[in-house]
Amino acid sequence: MNELISRGMAIVNQIPKPLWLGAGGGLIVLVILAAVLIGRRRLIKTALRKMDLGQADPLITAKLLSRPSLVESLIRRKGEDVITFFGIADHLVRRLQRRKKADDAKRILKLVPEDGLFPVFMLSLSRETIAQVFRNWMKENLDIIWVRKMALSAKGRDFNGIKARKLLSVCFEEVRDLSGDPEWPVRFFALRVLLADDDPKSMRLVKESFTDPHPLIRRTVAKEMSTEDLDELFGALMGMVLDDPVPEVRQAARARIQSTFPDRWKLDPSGMDALQSVHVLELLKSDSKEDENVAITALKEEAVEARLAAARFLEKSGALGRLFSEANRGDREDWERRLNLLSSAVSVGVTDFLSKLKISDSVDVLLLGARLLNEGGSSALISPLAEKAFNRSDPIREADEEELYRTAVHLACAKGNEKARSLVRDELRNRKRDDDVLGFILPLLPVKEAHVFRDVLLEFLVDADFTADEAFVSIMTRLPAPMFLGPVLDILESDRSRYSHAVRLRALNCLGGWHLDHTLQTILENLPILPMNQARAFAQNLAAMNKKALEKRAEFILASPDAGIRAALISCLPTTGISSFGKDIREGLNDADPDVRIACIRALMDAGELKATTTALNLLRDPVERVRLEAARIAGMKATEKFLESLETLLRDENESEVVRTAALEGLSVSDSKESVDALVRFLDSGENLREELVSAMAAKTDKKSVAALVEHFKDSEAILRDRISGVFIKMGESGEESLVELLREDIPSLKPFLADILTRTGFVELLIRRLNHRKPNIRRDAAELLAEIATESAYRGIVLAARDPDRDVRIKVTKALESLATPEGEGILKSLEKDPDRKVRRYTRWAMERLKAKKLP
User: Which one, of 504, 567, 562, lies nearest residue 533 by Cα?
Assistant: First the structure.
């Protein structure tokens, strides 16, 4: 054995060293190759096993991507499922996009052309080395199917069409054929390329894209198509603006028109249907005055969609804010126009412009805001509006301020939040001595929010100096009775010295207004609190309560000795509907107590059963003066022939006290019969007796019927009596003037000159002439119209001065009036005006008549 080993060592030692080194290197190479082959086989086996098990492994995927030949081997064994299973395509594409190497592009086109063709195409547009790979591949695979797959995989992504046209020149015809493909990404791909080609065939295909089903294609062609036929392009773009259903497409078409045809953007929404108007309005430019005018016109349309689009545009452009904040009631027509426009905006829910009322103190703007908030808008704006309206020292001094105040109160009560209602509560306290204001606020208080106002209402209840009782009782009877019943009963059941008569009467009216049957006895016991002239109205409360219980309690009271309660109850009975006590009331005319006698005659009057019996007429001569006073007044109200004769006799009885004769005057003054006017005029003509009281009584008869009767007497009277009747009309004041104007406008020929004379005597004509200088056109128009109706010399002195009024309607009315001066009937007035001592009147008369003859008025 040892010998064999020694020989072997000798042989080895005889081998040259270079040979040993070469053998070792070859062995190493063999080992490495073996290791690579083993690793390759092992990786393939592992990949195949993973596929069979359905287990995707990112590590295996990474190893496969580093050895593309293995991927090809796997594909040969398993088919293209290998690519999908291991996500090889996505990895290859990401690698290409990261490295931007031509070799990566080749690998993609070899392994995953369907997924990688478009990414390679996109990089080809910027990398010439990759572009060369792409062109070579396309030449080898020139087939429309591959072009379509590339376009489809683009999925509508944008690219440089000009570079693409050059890159795809080898397959351009195939691209052109794809312009009609069913899939929109394919058509979009083709369009991007065709837009860079000026061949007529391509341009024709591009034009068809204006009606493509997909909006991206329509938007793209609208933005980028170029043509020599600009009219055709403009027509196609306007068609998109008007009728395309997709906003992005319409916007693109509008932008293209703005850039290519800036002078041809002329719109008239009135000539479009509702949908077209909406489409156009959504595309208006906020910096264009012309577009703003278009929107304002559309805001007047009936179509709600058009109004909404117009309002949204005008709010974004700031036009609505300007319309609102620049409102001025000095120009009433403009103010009303603004109101109508802004109201249209509010009706479609566009109201942000109303927030500008927070920074405005103008009555004109605030009133406009109040009107609009009544129609819609944020209720949070009501509080700042109310604060501004309430902070005015005299909120109802002028008509505009009064309207603002009233609207603010209404909004705060009807739509306001808790803060707004608190402002109203505080306003009630601040205005507790202002009956006019309280008379408006109190009825508006929201019943469901009674707890907010309870404390201030209870303050009013016990305030002896509070005088707005009618409005107070009205709201109290609508509020929940249990919330206030305790304090009301405390007042009525307490010692009379604790609360004034006004407070007790207020409490009684509240209690009666609630119609609570279980409080009937308390009400009846407190009836003497009622003034007799309020009994009839209060009795309606009793009529709403339990009738059987009321009848039983009334029978008991009428049999009682207490005259005060009996008189109060008798005054109420006719209105309650209980008729079983008629006999007791008639017998009461002879009752020993004067208050009962007064109550009885009043009750008979209210029940319609008063007759001119001896007993009733005797009350005109009752020994108690206050009975005679009431009997006289009631006789006038009854107004039968016997009663009126008795009153006139009483009036002429110089032995009767002046107080009773004055009562007879009052009786005649409250009568609505023409005979009462005749009696008063006869007494007026008889002398100076009771002149002041007589004129006051006659001046109270301002109803149209009495005024007409008095005008008839004025017409038929001599100068002295006519002057006395003029004094009556002067005493009537505005109330009588309203009836006189109403009669004047009826154009009764027999009365018209006398009505004009009366209105001149009362100073009404001078008042109208002063109104011709009023800042509001509508007041000047009314004044000019009335002066034309009166048509006296003094009236025409004012009319000629209004011939240069800035308001056209005023000038029209002046013209109509001046035309009558050119007639024979007006000749005398014209001559008087031409000789008027006032130089201005003479000058204006000549100027107006010359203009009238030249037909240059108005």
Answer: 567
pLDDT of 30 > 70? The answer is no
To 10 degrees, the CA torsion angle through 246, 252, 253, 254? 110
CA angle 622, 624, 630 (to 5 degrees): 75
The amino acid sitting at 814 is V
Asked if residues 714 and 722 have their Cβ atoms less than 8 Å apart, the reply is yes
Residue 61: band (very low, low, confident or very high) from pLDDT cuts 50, 70, 90:
low
The closest alpha carbon to 364, from 396, 342, 339, belongs to 339
- Rounded CA separation 520/523 (Å): 5
Distance CA 721, CA 762 (A): 16
Residue 803 corresponds to which amino acid? A
Query: How far apart (Å, rounded) are the C-alpha atoms in residues 671 and 571?
Result: 21
Q: How far is CA 400 from CA 309, 332, 610, in A?
A: 32, 12, 49
Q: At what angle do helices 184-194 and 200-208 cross, to 10 degrees?
A: 140
pTM: 0.56
Contact 466, 482 (CB under 8 A): no
Residue 205, both tokens: 């295909």
Which residue in this structure is represented by tokens 């572009």?
131
Q: Please give the sequence-ordered ranges of beta strands (E in DSSP) within 644-769, or none if there are none.
A: none
Q: What is the pLDDT of residues 756-783, one digit of tens each?
A: 888 888 888 788 778 877 778 788 778 7
Query: Which residue in the block uniquely carries the two structure tokens 């024709």?
Result: 204
Neighbours of 330 (CB within 10 A): 11
Q: Yes or no: say if 636 and 604 are a contact pair by the CB < 8 Å rule.
A: no
How many CA atoms does the CB half-sphere of 58 hold within 13 Å? 2
Residues, the chain: 858
Collect all residues with Cβ–Cβ distance below 8 Å to 577 and sequence separation of at least 6.
Answer: 543, 547
Written as six digits, the tokens of 480 are 């929940």
C-alpha to C-alpha distance for 459 and 526, rounded to whole angstroms: 22
The torsion angle over the Cα atoms of residues 699, 703, 708 and 710, rounded to 10 degrees, is -20
Three-state DSSP at 22 gives helix
At residue 155, the 3 state secondary structure works out as coil
Q: Is 790 exposed, middle or buried, given 0-12, 13-18 or 19+ CB atoms closer than 10 A?
A: buried
Give 669's contacts (C-beta < 8 A, 6+ positions apart): 636, 676, 680, 697, 698, 700, 701
- Express the helix, strand and coil content of the chain in percent, nearest 5 each: 75, 0, 25
Quick one: which of 608, 532, 526 has its CA closest to 567?
532
Please give the structure tokens belonging to residue 721.
């009596």
> Which H/E stretch holds residue 29?
helix 17-53
DSSP for 742-782 reads HHHHTT-TTTHHHHHHHHHHTTHHHHHHHHTT-SSHHHHHH
Q: For position 826, what pLDDT does the model report?
A: 46
- Return d(Cα 286, Cα 315) in angstroms, integer: 9
Give the long-range contacts of residues 298-305, CB within 8 A, separation 24 or more.
298/269, 299/341, 299/344, 299/345, 300/340, 300/341, 300/344, 301/269, 301/270, 301/274, 301/277, 303/274, 303/277, 303/278, 304/347, 304/348, 305/274, 305/275, 305/277, 305/278
Q: What is the dihedral of CA 111, 116, 122, 127, to 10 degrees?
A: -20
Angle of CA points 630, 636, 641, to nearest 5°:
130
Whether residue 858 is preceded by a cis peptide bond, meaning omega within 30 degrees of 0, is yes
Residue 507 has what pLDDT? 93
Give the chain's end-to-end CA distance (angstroms, integer): 151
- Burial of 319 per CB tally in 10 Å (0-12, 13-18, 19+): buried
Phi, psi at residue 559, to the nearest 5°?
A: -90, -5
Task: Identify the pLDDT of residue 56.
Answer: 62
For 299-353, give the secondary structure using H, E and C.
CCCCCHHHHHHHHHHHHHHCHHHHHHHCCCCCCHHHHHHHHHHHHHHHHCCCCHH
pLDDT tens, position by position, 443-465: 888 888 888 889 999 999 999 99
Across the chain, which distance is largest between two alpha carbons, in Å? 189
Q: Which of 111, 186, 120, 115 is nearest to 148 (CA)?
A: 186
